[in-house]
Amino acid sequence: MAAIALPHAASTRRPAGLTLVELAISVLLLGLVLFIVAGQVKGIRRQAKRNLLYRTLTSLEQAGEAYHRVHESYPPAPADRAGTALAEDAAAAEALAPLPATVLRQHKGQWVLLDPWGEPLRYVNAQVDPVRVAANGDRPIWESAGPNRTFDKIDDYRSDELPP
Question: What CATH number is given to the structural domain containing 110?
Fold first, then answer.
């Protein structure tokens, strides 16, 4: 005996694949997950740059102290000469060694110190601002313009105001 196909059974079977509504919901959920992940990645990158800046400023403080122990003075101003003085001094260079190559770059024969956003660090010594340097125990101050890349006190970072 041969099996007889019923017309009713064939009409209740659903074709393989997704409906338009299911596809739209899937795309919406995927977009939501990507939006959340992208926000997390941006926050992680921001924190990583801030941590690199803290390490850089701490290393510069240590390099300045090493330079001071040898020469009995801090590096000269402006910042490009200070960077060169630190980079070419054996004791100070040891403190700068752990920093990535993106921080210390050579430009026109001078060593330039850059923050994680690619902007030059500002060096403030007693010749530039004696009051601020005196308030910092006569130690020079390194400053970064921060993420907005302008020295406007909104998001600037300074070596004398580092977190513990």
Answer: 3.30.700.10
Q: Is the pTM of this model over 0.85?
A: no
Residue 154 CA from chain centroid, whole number: 17
Nearest residue to 121 (alpha-carbon basis) of 95, 94, 97, 140 = 140
- DSSP code of 150? S
What letter does residue 148 receive in the DSSP assignment? T
Residue type, 137: G
Angle 79-88/20-71 helices, nearest 10 degrees? Answer: 70
Tokens of 15: 């074709």
Mean pLDDT within 86-115: 83
Phi, psi at residue 84, to the nearest 5°? -65, -45
Q: Is residue 61 part of a domain?
A: yes
**Per this entry, what is the length of the chain?**
164
Give tens-digit pLDDT for 38-93. 888 888 998 999 999 999 999 888 888 998 998 898 887 776 678 888 888 888 88
Residue 162 per-residue DSSP state: -
Residue 5 lies in a domain: no
**Sequence-ordered list of residues with C-beta below 8 angstroms from that of 134, at least 6 positions apart, any chain:** 126
